[in-house]
Amino acid sequence: MPGNTFGHLLRLTTFGESHGLSIGGIVDGVPPGLELCEKDLQRELDLRKPGQGSTSTARKEADLVHIQSGLFQGKTTGTPIAFLIENTNQQSSDYDELARVFRPGHADFTYHTKYHGFRDYRGGGRASGRETAARVAAGAIAAKILAQISVEIFAASVEFGGIGIDNEFVDLAGALARPYFAASDSVISRWDQAVQKARENHDTLGGIVQIEANNVPAGLGEPVFDKISAMLGHGLLSVGAVKGVEFGDGFQAARSTGSANNDLLLAPKSAGALPGFATNHAGGMLGGITTGQSIIARVAVKPIASVPRPQQTVDLDGHPCQITIGGRHDLSAIPRIVPVLRAMTALVLADAWLMQNSLG
Amino acid sequence: MPGNTFGHLLRLTTFGESHGLSIGGIVDGVPPGLELCEKDLQRELDLRKPGQGSTSTARKEADLVHIQSGLFQGKTTGTPIAFLIENTNQQSSDYDELARVFRPGHADFTYHTKYHGFRDYRGGGRASGRETAARVAAGAIAAKILAQISVEIFAASVEFGGIGIDNEFVDLAGALARPYFAASDSVISRWDQAVQKARENHDTLGGIVQIEANNVPAGLGEPVFDKISAMLGHGLLSVGAVKGVEFGDGFQAARSTGSANNDLLLAPKSAGALPGFATNHAGGMLGGITTGQSIIARVAVKPIASVPRPQQTVDLDGHPCQITIGGRHDLSAIPRIVPVLRAMTALVLADAWLMQNSLG
Amino acid sequence: MPGNTFGHLLRLTTFGESHGLSIGGIVDGVPPGLELCEKDLQRELDLRKPGQGSTSTARKEADLVHIQSGLFQGKTTGTPIAFLIENTNQQSSDYDELARVFRPGHADFTYHTKYHGFRDYRGGGRASGRETAARVAAGAIAAKILAQISVEIFAASVEFGGIGIDNEFVDLAGALARPYFAASDSVISRWDQAVQKARENHDTLGGIVQIEANNVPAGLGEPVFDKISAMLGHGLLSVGAVKGVEFGDGFQAARSTGSANNDLLLAPKSAGALPGFATNHAGGMLGGITTGQSIIARVAVKPIASVPRPQQTVDLDGHPCQITIGGRHDLSAIPRIVPVLRAMTALVLADAWLMQNSLG
Amino acid sequence: MPGNTFGHLLRLTTFGESHGLSIGGIVDGVPPGLELCEKDLQRELDLRKPGQGSTSTARKEADLVHIQSGLFQGKTTGTPIAFLIENTNQQSSDYDELARVFRPGHADFTYHTKYHGFRDYRGGGRASGRETAARVAAGAIAAKILAQISVEIFAASVEFGGIGIDNEFVDLAGALARPYFAASDSVISRWDQAVQKARENHDTLGGIVQIEANNVPAGLGEPVFDKISAMLGHGLLSVGAVKGVEFGDGFQAARSTGSANNDLLLAPKSAGALPGFATNHAGGMLGGITTGQSIIARVAVKPIASVPRPQQTVDLDGHPCQITIGGRHDLSAIPRIVPVLRAMTALVLADAWLMQNSLG
Q1: Confidence of residue A126 (pLDDT cuts 50, 70, 90)
Q2: CA distance D15 to A68
Q3: Which of B81, D190, D271, D316 has the most beta carbons within 10 angstroms of its beta carbon?
């Protein structure tokens, strides 16, 4: 309830500040008998790790994950899986100035107000993007649950610095091998130029991430308030820097007509199978319940707030001042946010699947 | 957990199918001492009532609300407020065909699959838009809670049938007096033409609704997973027909730069007041916590799935067939969805305020 | 969260005051395809109905239940089941005095304090035992879920007015046919005398109820905090007038030794069956998880607080005064509390079973 | 929901097995600005530490707690407080036999069944009493919250091995300084003899713990299902070995009469103060809401299941066999359970207080 727990039957509770001893979490509700090891989590964490790629911070964190519980002889036991990631490369002195000045675009002011002035200002404290590492580790566990029913989740950058990829060229499956976790090779050089230009302008960039979940069984999601879109939306919008989410044709659907937007049903491909669909404008859900088609979502990611130039702001006393943000910051949340969004998608779908299982 | 409850400290649980005896809900967690009467709920329900305006169904429902509990001598007592709305104008025979055929774009197939074939097919059953009346009634209660701290929530249609309203002309406050709950008079005649054309084409339309909440105190929303954006997103995406949601500049923010997108902080206007902001690209939130600026959201609404023309589909046995949907249907969820989205916003903000109160 | 909802996957939310229009509730999470009708609920409600037996109030309520939703063609659909029970026999004038005086042993003072003076004082308002009718109706639904796996729940009075039934004579199965829902015929005449004497003394009585659930599958209950004992304890202690609960040997176990208290395991009776136990000191649970043995609980019920004689108390202003409670009151919560406790047991066990199902 | 989280606004989620790397937990919802350090937790943990007193295991654990997050400059920040306690003194080889044999009175069989055979059998795994260390650490945080409003919680052993302390001699405040955390010096020698005798008999003992919370504000607890008794009962019954709980006169109240059991209200001691009560049979609650009087609870603790003698049981295949439990075990959960029960009481009361705060 106080906001650091996510999910119903599969529940993630996280902790940790950017410059504390460690960050981590507890995943409760993992079914027993699942093969799992630290490497499963580490592989995903490595995708999110800082210090890689042209948009990333110079802060290097090994981000080694240590599982504390819930495994025995290489398998889950149904009990909570706790994991820790130590904060090894803190340079808190970078942040001394932040004790008294609110950075524009950051949560400094809102946390200060919410928590009556008690705030770990170092690196954004709890509001730092660093907390998303715990989501990624937990998402890896959720992905293992989903792998049992062959659900696969892909995510990739489909737009960066305003430069998008045409839908026909989008290849999510190959994205992890590309710079920016891009959905196509065709944009890489233009995105490189955008990075170059942003660096010259002492500025930062945003983008759009597309997510696709395949082989999702029909019937997941709960009416009325916990539609799969609502739960996914909750999860994706809870990631810092996310300013919008849409499913299927999303905002374009608002401009379509019913006859064009409806996905017509087709006869099952084989006896006993579920019906198919002629199109997937809906993004894999009807009435908030999955159809068996691929779930498709797109997420808007704002530019990083830590722009390396002087900005106007106020201090704790409300006095106007300028701030020039030091520290080590990414130029964009793209691509490091990609595995985070994938993790949130996995957490929601695994949770929805366990919920549906309870019906027998 | 099974999806018919929404909220943490202010909780709405709803029930009811399109063609059952009644629909309604229970609102738990309303603070004591609030002046409240049925008229407060009825006024909002009347805005959503079918049978009004050019896009609405011919089904007429008085939608009279009856409060059962939680009030004494005109005031709330802190105990649950239950309310009922009778279904008076059911024409179930309209729906006989639906027992065996899945309507495209509807939840028929997904509910059938989720609930193992047990389904009230009349008028969409639980998946009918009719359930949103309970949200509107509850939202009126939430709005009364928020009125104590002067929070006002406006919502209006800013795009319909692909015809949008330029941002500079958007006037949310006057929307309820206009057809389509439009944000501007300037588009009415073109929207009328779009309706005319859609009727001629036996088709339906969608649109975009903008929401603005003013006077929201700074500090609402919970890190990490229950950011105000995540909770609002959850609530708004849980409304049928909603395919996307964005906050502040939303998807446009993804194309901006950090220097342009950051809202610079300004000195407080008076001693003791909170700092102000030069702009509101963020839509009233930073790090998922409200800033004290207006919360701004935009919601994509798909076209109504019940297009009045033959459509290809399958029956329960998976056999291809055609369906021509009879019954009485809206041409668009615009504008009846507007008070529903306003209600969900009120429920989330009132809940977030109670949560923040608990910190003392 | 504000306390009027119970359960995880099977959730009951109730509403209603003693002298409001109606009381009722919503049961969410009932699996689809279950045969259910109003009679199933009414049968249980009739067991709790006032105006029956020597200890009961003269207030007569038909307590007719009306199901509003969630059923179609005689079966559950997986959507919420709402039900209403009208308050038909209110004599609010009986309670005028209570507007300004706190009755000893009642919640008048605590509700007044909790809700800042806003309180429906008529008949105890929300704190009236009348709210338990909603529990009984919901418990009947839970019992139907459990009947699918042959779980049967019995409850009976095993002590009344200090006169107990020896363990060897306890017959829970036949209790509903006996006065006081007594666990044995042998005590009826002595209990009658106790009633007679209490009436002469203008006093009221309490007792102890024993509950037994048979055929409960092994494996229900959740570590660590939601042990089956904890969930049952929560449910049973949430019933007004309950002052204690114990499982198996309960408080006697505290006086035993490990060697005497341990239930030794026995070989399964047939191949593939679960092991048996030589005894059942534990009351059907180990480590908070069900063993497959019968669950056994005992519940302490305090005497009715509305004693028909003058009592010392204070008024709203804190001035000492006397109160002589009028109105129509039971002489004991025994036996009307028996179906209520049975209902709570059913709700907990059905919920725990759905939880376990989610593991696959 | 899967059972490893406790509380509403103050939430504890725990993890860890007896022989894993560590145990620990996350406390979410702690208000900001509270002075807190590891010593506050350690002091309570030291009371529960094994290897002290005549009834305790020979297993020695330093049980040093390490706080990972949520503190800054010695104060809470409102963000989750995670803490770890390493398992340093594991002798897993002691438990090899347990891989295939179910110990009587333990959760071996039920966990095996619940979790489909996947189980960390070393030292009871998750079902070990060792998990209660996390409760104690969290309870220390809750106690700090409560200290702000002067709530003090005492707990003591009032019965051990069947030898009780007369109510008139009960002194809870001095218990922590006595062996067995006894409520009186008068029983110590007899309890010593009981230990001696139990050791000779290769047997184990149980007892009863009394809890008292003073200065609890009136108005805490939520109707209808989350009465303070229900929430306390849930928390106390969730502790392993607890078989019963009662409030105020508890099971004795069932034998009383209304006129004797009612606590008459008295005029406030000073203007503006709340009314007082002539007695406290109710244990500090009416209608499930606190009265401002002391909360009094008594908890039945069963004898330790690990009796050091051969016992009859079955193995994984259902074959009868004998087991003689090795390892290092307490002779009684008394007194180490005392700080655990105190911790659970603190968690519930602090949660209830935050809930009440949300009403404004």
Answers
A1: very high
A2: 8
A3: B81
Sign of CA dihedral A171, A173, A179, A181: positive
Read off the DSSP letter of residue C334.
T
Strands D71-72 and D5-6: unpaired
CA D163 to chain CA centroid, nearest Å: 21
Please write down the HEC assignment for all residues of B82-97: EEEEECCCCCHHHHHH
Cβ of C358 and A360 within 8 Å?
Answer: no
Whole-number pLDDT of residue C360: 78
Cα A120 from Cα A104, distance rounded (Å): 17
Cα A12 to Cα A25, A136, A245, C113, C241, distances in angstroms? 7, 11, 22, 37, 38
Find the radius of gyration of the CA atoms of chain C.
21
Rounded to 5 degrees, φ, ψ at D62 are -65, -30
- Beta-bridge partners for A20: none
What count of Cα atoms within 13 Å lies in the side-chain half-sphere of residue B173? 2
Tell me the ipTM for this assembly: 0.97
Question: Can you name the CATH fold of A5-248+283-357?
Answer: Chorismate synthase, AroC fold (3.60.150)
Residue B190: how many other CB atoms lie within 10 Å:
12
**Encoding tokens for residue A257?**
């007509």
Note whether D357 contacts B: Cβ–Cβ < 8 A. Answer: yes
- Contacting residues for C174 by C-beta, under 8 A, at least 6 apart: none
Q: Are A356 and A219 in contact (CB under 8 A)?
A: yes
Residue B67 in tokens:
């409060």
Q: What length is written for chain C?
A: 360
**DSSP per-residue letters across B310-325:** -EEEEBTTS-EEEE--
Taking only the tens place, the pLDDT of each residue in B274-286 is 999 999 999 999 9
Say yes or no: A155 contacts chain B, CB-CB below 8 A.
no
- Band of pLDDT at residue D98, cut at 50, 70 and 90: confident
> In angstroms, how far is CA D295 from the centroid of its own chain?
16
DSSP class of residue C166 equals -
Are the CB atoms for A251 and B243 separated by under 8 Å? yes
C266, C276 Cβ separation under 8 angstroms: yes
Q: Do B5 and C11 touch (CB under 8 A)?
A: yes
What band does D95 get if pLDDT is binned at 50, 70 and 90? confident
How far is it, in rounded angstroms, from Cα D209 to Cα D300? 7
C-alpha distance from B141 to closest chain D C-alpha (Å): 15
CA trace torsion C130, C133, C135, C139 (10° rounding): 160
Touching C (3+ Cβ pairs <8 A), the chains are A, B, D
Q: Inter-chain contact A127–B274, Cβ cutoff 8 Å?
A: no
- Give me the helix-helix angle, D38-48 and D337-357, nearest 10°: 140
Is residue B299 within 8 Å of residue B341, measured between CB atoms? yes
pLDDT digits (tens, 9 = 90+) for C61-71: 789 999 999 99
Q: Are A4 and D28 in contact (CB < 8 Å)?
A: yes
Q: Residues A229-274: pLDDT tens digits?
A: 999 999 999 999 999 999 999 999 999 999 999 999 999 999 889 9
- Measure CA of the first residue to CA of the last residue in chain B; give whole Å: 28
Tell me how far apart the alpha carbons of residues B86 and C68 are, in angstroms, rounded to a whole number: 10
Whole-angstrom distance, CA of residue B332 vs CA of residue B329: 9
* Residue C300 backbone dihedrals phi, psi, to 5 degrees: -90, 125
Q: D14 with D131: CB under 8 angstroms?
A: yes
**Per-residue model confidence as pLDDT tens digits over C77-104:** 999 999 999 998 766 566 777 899 999 9
Q: Which pLDDT score, from 0 to 100, does residue A160 have? A: 98
- Collapsing DSSP to helix, strand or coil, B165 comes out as coil
Query: What does the angle CA C106 – CA C109 – CA C114 come to, to the nearest 5 degrees?
Result: 120
Predicted model pTM:
0.98
**What's the rounded mean pLDDT across residues A149-163?**
98
